[in-house]
Amino acid sequence: HSPLMDPMLDDFRTALTGLTAHEASVDVVSTLTGTTVRPAGLASPDHWVRHARETVRFADAVRALADAGVRHFLEIGPDAVLTSLIREAVPDATEVVPLLRRDRDEETAAVTALARLHTAGVPVDWPALFAGTGARAVDLPTYPFQHERYWPETADAVPASGGDDGVDAEFWAAVEREDLESLAARLDLDTEILGGVVPALSAWRSRRRARSLSDALRFRETWQPLRTAASGPSGTWLVVLPADGPHTDTAWLDAVTAALGTDTVTVRLGKRPARGELAGELSRLTADGTRFSGVLSLLAGTDATRWTSVPVGLVDTAVLLQALDDAGIRTRVWAVTRGAVAVTPDDPVDPLQAALWGLGRVA
């Protein structure tokens, strides 16, 4: 990669000439040119002599891969020498994984690399990995979270008594037991008078305690009105609509799309959109160099369900997110819902919409 290589180049060319070379069967981006090379070019000794002597265009090659849609990088080498350089060249890469590490055994390092790629969405042929080992699939235990708490810690519930002292606690305990004689003596009232009141008080007390406990387990969304005027979105936006049908609110879809107030490209999904087909359609939309400023998903504009009770908008949104990634469209996705959360305490909540809101929190 420098003039220091000159003394060995003739011998290197002679050694390469004695080898039988075959054309590459996959696309290769060469660090000699920083671009894709023709398969036949890799079989030429001259290519590798130049490769040893001339400038290494590593950053150009990595960026060429990213421009071609590559999001996952696997470094095949003795350690993570190039991983950090790839991160610098492609900061938004989904995963950059070294296959081997010098400070751990090869099997552990290689399987760890496969696992990281798998969790990033790269298909891994696990049966091939375990072939001949006698390994077999087993059911997971039914108590994976038995020994460790994964929920965020919440504040202690407000006692149902509202901070009762000992005397009040004794009184409410007697109410819950419906101990008419004790209450009659305490209140200096006849038991017949208390006969109709104490059961009602006991029921009210139980309801209050149950609500207090349930409130302690819930997370709350709070909203504030936007007081300042904001300009509308700029650039070209991709608007994704659900399939036509009796469950689709066409008027609402038209109103939201019109309110976007900018250039839009509209895609309407079919009844059961396939990830591959949708990714192909999205790729065609950007084949001319179009770059979307954002994606507005209105897939919540239908209350149809699939598989008895699963919201169609939820399933189709998951497919949309996958297809956008497959098509290389990496921009923010805004999924509009209606009634997914309560803006005011009296607002009803739609469970179908809430499901999609939940997907948005983790996608």
Task: Describe the 3D structure.
The protein has 363 residues and is an alpha/beta fold. The protein has 14 helices and ten strands. Helix 11 (250-259) links the parallel strand 5 and strand 6 (264-268). The longest helix has 20 residues, at 198-217. The chain is elongated. The model has no long low-confidence stretch (mean pLDDT 84).
Secondary structure layout plus pairing:
Blueprint: H1 9-17, E1 28-29, E2 36-37, H2 45-53, H3 58-67, E3 72-75, H4 83-89, E4 95-98, H5 106-119, H6 126-129, H7 166-177, H8 180-187, H9 191-194, H10 198-217, E5 237-241, H11 250-259, E6 264-268, H12 275-285, E7 294-297, E8 305-306, E9 310-311, H13 312-326, E10 333-335, H14 351-362
Parallel strand pairs: 3-4, 5-6, 5-7, 7-10
Antiparallel strand pairs: 1-2, 8-9
Helix pairs in contact: 1-2, 7-10, 12-13, 13-14
Q: List segments where confidence is low: pLDDT < 50 over at least 5 consecutive residues.
A: none
Largest sheet: 4 strands, parallel
The outline comes out as elongated
Q: Give the integer mean of the pLDDT values.
A: 84
Query: Care to count the β-strands?
Result: 10
Cross-sheet strand order for the largest sheet: 6-5-7-10
Percent of residues in helices comes to 25-40%
Structural class: alpha/beta
SSE string, helix = H, strand = E? HEEHHEHEHHHHHHEHEHEEEHEH
How far the N terminus sits from the C terminus, by CA atoms, comes to 44 Å
**Whole-angstrom Rg:** 32 Å
Q: How many DSSP helices?
A: 14
Strand content: 5-15%
